[in-house]
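Structure tokens please, single chain.
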Amino acid sequence: MDWEYFFELLPGGLTRGSIYALIALGYTMVYGIIELINFAHGEIYMIGGFTALIIANVLTLLGLNQVAILVLAGLTAVIYSAAYGFTVEKVAYKPLRHAPRLSPLISAIGMSIFLQNYVLLAQTSDFLPFPSLIPTFGFMEPVSHIISSAELMIIVTTAVVMILLTLLIKFTRMGKAMRATAQDRNMAMLVGVNVNRVISTTFIIGSSLAAIGGVMIASHIGMINFYVGFIAGIKAFTAAVLGGIGSIPGAVLGGLVLGWTESFATGYVSSDYEDVFAFALLVLILIFRPAGILGRATSQKV
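Here you go.
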């Protein structure tokens, strides 16, 4: 076995998995609170990337340095995507909160298609070049052939986000309200929890995480178009289900497993089969462990 080649593929899979994990966290948070799959979440990721592209181009013309452009473009993308997430929840999901389960599912798919075509009309169907916003670190030079500065930044960002999100949910007042709402929404309302605020906050946080992923992966790859959100969203949803939908550690683990599966399938078999291996793994996990790797099986009273 060529171990050098193996260790070249390893960080690539870790990078992919980190991006899937950032997006999957939004899926799993929303599902944990209201048991709804937000299929428009991938489009929020895409909108975050396009927002950063526009801001980065403007700031480049103004002559700002690379780090300032990354921070300002990323911050603007987070705020803009959070606003979209908040609006999507109020327009497409809140009115259907007590409707049959099929209704919000159709609304979510419709919102995804709407946002895709909205960006298509506002921008273009072609791939657009995206500037490299992540700086090159000098200390990475000895291992640059294995892992790049951009990949390291993506991995570290995902780890930091997961830690902060875990601390938020476990130790803050809003986090306790989220856990209460996820456990029993009606009882949470009876004890004074503002459920509407909790759900809106969940959409805002999830959308912000998707925007961070959109900015970083677009900067790493160097291009973006209106359809990237759909592909990334499906993969992230797969990662969330793989790890255990509703579980934050499960979303991260599912993202990493999916990323490594695609990376090694591309490296040792063919890039044409990376999706085949990824979804075959999902099928196997769901056959032998339907709740996902870290998910808990639930029983319903009848």
